[in-house]
């Protein structure tokens, strides 16, 4: 089995920073793409940032220049550094990973971590 566990959410004032981390564990053979998604209150889940196994990144327009995604392949972790936070960044943030086990390939999600940005 594979698990993704997020940490680092919380309450911050507008203009502040937070760093989210996500650790993958279990019978992992290879982790392909990893990413962060978010679900604002009353809205659908949306892409925030993606990073490939080779480190190529992609960001939603709304977070470009403020958020940075990174990963540590040796530790099976992905992080999201969020700077210049805005109230509209308030959401539950989910870690996502495309993972190969010895016998399967699948998409896995973390349980989510709340980020609240006050104005």
Question: Layout of SSEs?
Answer:
Blueprint: E1 2-7, E2 10-13, E3 18-26, E4 30-39, E5 46-51, E6 57-59, E7 67-72, E8 77-82, E9 91-100, E10 105-109, E11 113-118
Parallel strand pairs: 2-11
Antiparallel strand pairs: 1-3, 3-8, 4-5, 4-9, 5-6, 7-8, 9-10, 9-11
Description:
The chain has strands at residues 2-7, 10-13, 18-26, 30-39, 46-51, 57-59, 67-72, 77-82, 91-100, 105-109, 113-118. The relative contact order is 0.33. The model has no long low-confidence stretch (mean pLDDT 97). Helices cover 0% and strands 60% of the residues. β5 and β6 (57-59) form a beta hairpin. With 119 residues, the protein is mainly beta.
Calculate the mean pLDDT score and round it.
97
Low-confidence stretches: none
Count all strands and give the number.
11
Give the % helix. under 10%
Q: Main beta sheet: strand number and arrangement?
A: 7 strands, mixed
List keywords for this structure.
119 residues; mainly beta; 7-stranded mixed β-sheet; 4-stranded antiparallel β-sheet; 0% helix
In short:
The protein has 119 residues and is an all-beta fold. It has no helices and 11 strands.
């Amino acid at each position: 089995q594979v698990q993704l566990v997020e940490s680092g959410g919380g309450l911050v004032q507008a203009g502040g920073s937070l760093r989210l981390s996500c650790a993958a564990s279990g019978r992992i053979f290879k982790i392909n793409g990893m990413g962060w998604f978010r679900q604002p209150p009353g809205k659908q889940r949306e892409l925030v940032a993606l990073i490939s196994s080779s480190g190529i990144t992609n960001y939603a327009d709304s977070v470009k220049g403020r958020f940075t995604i990174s990963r540590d392949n040796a530790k099976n972790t992905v992080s999201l550094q969020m700077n210049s936070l805005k109230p509209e960044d308030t959401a539950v943030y989910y870690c996502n990973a495309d993972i190969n086990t010895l016998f399967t390939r699948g998409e896995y999600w973390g349980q989510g971590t709340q980020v609240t940005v006050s104005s």
